[in-house]
Amino acid sequence: MSEGRRELTGPVEVIGTGLLGTSVALACRRAGIEVLLTDVSADHVRTASALGAGRPRADGDRPQLVVVAVPPDHLGASIAAALDAGDAVVTDVGSVKTGPLAAVHDHPRVRRYVGGHPMAGSERSGPLAATADLFEGRPWAIAAHPDADPDAVGLVEELVGLCAGVVVRLSPEDHDRAVARTSHVPHLLASLAAGRLADAPADHLRLSGQGVRDVTRVAAGSPQLYGQIVAANAAAVLGLLGEVRGELDALIGAIAAADGDALAAVLQQGVAGTLAIPGKHGGPVRPTASVFVSVPDEPGVLARLFLAAGEAEVNIEDVRIDHDLGRQVGLVELIVDESRADHLLASLESRGWLTHR
Amino acid sequence: MSEGRRELTGPVEVIGTGLLGTSVALACRRAGIEVLLTDVSADHVRTASALGAGRPRADGDRPQLVVVAVPPDHLGASIAAALDAGDAVVTDVGSVKTGPLAAVHDHPRVRRYVGGHPMAGSERSGPLAATADLFEGRPWAIAAHPDADPDAVGLVEELVGLCAGVVVRLSPEDHDRAVARTSHVPHLLASLAAGRLADAPADHLRLSGQGVRDVTRVAAGSPQLYGQIVAANAAAVLGLLGEVRGELDALIGAIAAADGDALAAVLQQGVAGTLAIPGKHGGPVRPTASVFVSVPDEPGVLARLFLAAGEAEVNIEDVRIDHDLGRQVGLVELIVDESRADHLLASLESRGWLTHR
């Protein structure tokens, strides 16, 4: 959208000045838009104001757009209150979209509500963790209901652009099914895998490698927050968990019966799933290869390694650092385009790095 | 063990010249030990020999130590044949330990068998992927049975040291329970999570973030190989999958009944599990914090970033590169000791990097 046709002129009211709300506010301020801040915590509003995220909302303020960024359990009521309060367009940043919509479905101003969900976050929370860059390059679902006012949708999409997010349009129902599949159910299965480690003997856990760390990482998230999110998406999550239960029973049956073909079928379905995840930059998955480098565990060593990779003109797609056991040595896995792996390997070796594939 | 008391003088026979076997052979050759190579594939033996991993075994050779590195389904028979063939100490590198032991439990020379399992591997296979450094700093389980000859155990542990692995002593039963918990069940749950993605609409998968990529990464592994491993550890895996099924039922019940406390309890157990995984270098988990940096997706940029972090004298504990959608910009997460995060953030910002926490 060109500057000349810019519709989002403000003020923007942000209700809930936590990580997401304050980050949206900072991005609006960066674009020169006036921001009004509202929170049940006066402390949060003061902090967000001090960070330059805007000023407390005052009586008589008439926002053009309201962004509701409150915890999942309060979304519906806050969106309804925002619609009650005036004729502003209202959006939210909640992780689930059908529940809040149902709460305002019969509201006379429902056409001005357009649900949103930026796929961004942090393990930190609160306004101090906020940044105008939080959404840069991240998908931001726009889950407009069929009766939403097209102008309202356009205004919310303009907000996403201003935050440097990438609009992904889905119906509220599709959004919730999508996040059940790509976020909620993977999280719950990670929690089940991690839960088996909680009471394990310590010497058993010494065999933990990178695989179990990757599988269980998300399970470290807040049970309170995540519990609210899952509860709010109960229908979609239960549908998929029912499938998971059926597959788990099939898996248990296959292992108990020593049925190698049935076991391989479950594993093969998993392989197909990993290949279905879109690649970096939303394109098809490009084949990658790993180059491993053993490095001493000290400041500066990764700098030298990446400098060497850069000199070889190889683009690093991903990096993993293996946490080894009992030694002050790290194993760094550089994931690169398959066609560049041999060149990188030779290049690093010629510079004296201890590499292998 | 001092050089003066070195007992492992060779020759070492390696049966199965794939990734693991050839890597063990290369580590032995690096230490100046004669290596004899055996494989059903003459091609593999030729390749491994050409890599400097040793020479084909000939009639009349009398190895001091035999390392069995064949696929899971052939382990028991190969170990038995190696015990039959002479008075060498025999070890293996299989992922499961009670099954192979049962296959030789009544063998007259069973005292000379000491099972082993290095926690190392690669997504590549075959001798060309091998390297003497594969085991450096990795845990290597030694699963000696109660009747094993202490001298035989010492010899195998000397092999681990020569490969720069870290010995973790466990009974065969404990080993198998440990890998069921830390490897096999997490892998199977990752497969179940990934399996749900296989038939998902493509626009749903556009909401995939780093979480689902981490949870499902291991599920990309070979169904054939992994199926053999899981089948060989059926008892321990089934025990844990029974627990998982019980917890899954509890989870489904909690969500269906909107019982927030019961849902939070399952999630809290997962949090406890993630905290139980030992930290880097086998010590307690140190608190870490993340610093995020937005970077253009081009060769050399990570080099400059890591150089800047090195100049700030901050040790990077882990790195993640977020795969974003539709933009040629990457988000790099630097995980550092919590006490160093603010310093790193300020230091990077002063050098012009676009950072946030």
From TrEMBL, chains A, B:
This protein's pathway: Amino-acid biosynthesis; L-tyrosine biosynthesis; (4-hydroxyphenyl)pyruvate from prephenate (NAD(+) route): step 1/1
One Pfam family in the UniProt entry: PDH_N
SUPFAM superfamilies xrefs: 6-phosphogluconate dehydrogenase C-terminal domain-like (SSF48179), ACT-like (SSF55021), NAD(P)-binding Rossmann-fold domains (SSF51735)
Keyword terms, alphabetized: Amino-acid biosynthesis, Aromatic amino acid biosynthesis, NAD, Oxidoreductase, Tyrosine biosynthesis
GO molecular function, one term: prephenate dehydrogenase (NAD+) activity
Domain ACT: 290-357
Domain Prephenate/arogenate dehydrogenase: 10-285
Family: Belongs to the prephenate/arogenate dehydrogenase family.
NCBIfam families according to UniProt: PRK06545.2-3, PRK06545.2-4
EC number: 1.3.1.12
GO BP annotations, alphabetical order: tyrosine biosynthetic process
Reaction it catalyzes: prephenate + NAD(+) = 3-(4-hydroxyphenyl)pyruvate + CO2 + NADH
UniProt keyword annotation of Amino-acid biosynthesis present: yes
Protein name from the UniProt record: Prephenate dehydrogenase
Domain of life: Bacteria
